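B., you asked whether I could sanity-check this one before it goes into the benchmark set. Here's the sequence:
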Amino acid sequence: MREAFRTSASSPLHSGKYSVEPKLSSLIEAAEKGDKSATEALFAALYSELHRLAKRELARHGGQVSVSATTLLHEAYLEMAEREGSLFPDQLRFMGYTARVMRGLIIDHARNRQAQKRGGQFEITSLGTDAGSHAIDDRELTHISEALDELAKMDASLAELVDMKFFCGFSFAEIAAMRGVSERTVQRNWEKARIYLHRSIQSDLSI
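And here's what the prediction gave me:
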């Protein structure tokens, strides 16, 4: 799954229709109309942006540091919205896309954690993947991610909720505020998603 979030010479950002990097607002608009190339380019661009911000935090602190996924997403939204202007999408739509990208970024870092023995390192932490209290196995994260992809085909809203809550660390109250619904509604939907994931993976999960 993570390959969808990487930029490379063959990425839509560098070839074909999107040879000149467009604004994210344009990519989001095209993606929402079903343009698969725009969707791939959007995820690649967001992955690069979030990774850049995380590396900036590393440089700012001069070494190993924990970066809150929630803080990272808020910073990304503020920076991109200011850069792109009035056509930039609302916070909920933006968070929906970036939460999915954050899932890929966190899984990548979980896979690479053992290889990072020394030098500058950073951890991206969230409510469900706080490296300081419980480092979840990257295989478990991958299983959850694959199950979420299947859930998204049936109910994209539930899959997005798991991304925002589990991978990004948003609270029920924060998600409810962004979605314009009650906190209780978010909690009920969270339980629906958890039940689906447990049945799908058929194992004990840290979610």
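One thing to flag: The helical segments are 24-31, 36-61, 69-84, 91-112, 138-154, 156-167, 172-179, 183-201. Otherwise nothing jumped out at me.
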